């Protein structure tokens, strides 16, 4: 896929365990510098490995976006369908997560990841995809989800506290079974 405005060749593919260092590096930035995630502590490599294996064992997508680099590939984004809630009644519901490396926004990488993730979502084990988006600084994510047919279904006011401020969360939802 051509990245918008730059002509760069973006590859979206299934993540491997070798990609987790790049994934962790991207997420570390958001934990340390933004309110996009409510994590205060950067997850360890072991935590990422457990998350990756849990998602893959559930037959759900965990993807990376890469660009060519001198030493091979450079991970510039990732997306996955994780657990929404742990109770069995929620087994067909997932929570999506999409992050793009700082400095690479606005190049179509988020759209490429979203398209790849939705294309790989198995309707046999996924019905609902929920996005939980921090409203402070989340305008781009809200717009991305809207472009792909997610509808805003609620807002939790002042639900999280990070960086000295109370932050709303926007809930968006996509029903894969109603999409044909």
From TrEMBL:
Which segments constitute the N-acetyltransferase domain? 10-177
Which residues fall in a coiled-coil region? none
Q: What Pfam families does the entry give?
A: Acetyltransf_4
Q: Which UniProt keywords apply?
A: Acyltransferase, Transferase
Instruction: List the protein's name.
Output: Acetyltransferase
Q: Which organism is it from?
A: Gordonia paraffinivorans NBRC 108238
């Amino acid at each position: 896929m051509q990245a918008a405005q730059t002509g760069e060749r973006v590859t979206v593919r299934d993540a491997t365990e070798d990609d987790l260092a790049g994934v962790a590096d991207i997420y570390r930035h958001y934990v340390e510098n933004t309110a996009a995630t409510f994590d205060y502590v950067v997850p360890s490599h072991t935590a990422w490995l457990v998350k990756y294996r849990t998602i893959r064992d559930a037959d759900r997508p965990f993807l990376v976006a890469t660009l060519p680099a001198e030493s091979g590939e450079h991970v510039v984004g990732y997306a996955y369908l994780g657990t929404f809630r742990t109770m069995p009644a929620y087994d067909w519901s997932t929570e999506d997560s999409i992050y793009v490396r700082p400095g690479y926004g606005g190049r179509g990488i988020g759209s490429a990841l979203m398209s790849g993730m939705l294309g790989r979502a198995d309707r046999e084990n996924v019905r609902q995809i929920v996005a939980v988006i921090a409203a402070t600084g989340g305008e781009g994510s809200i717009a991305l989800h809207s472009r792909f047919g997610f509808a805003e279904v609620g807002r939790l006011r002042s639900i999280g506290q990070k960086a000295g401020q109370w932050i709303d969360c926007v809930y968006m939802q996509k029903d894969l079974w109603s999409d044909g």
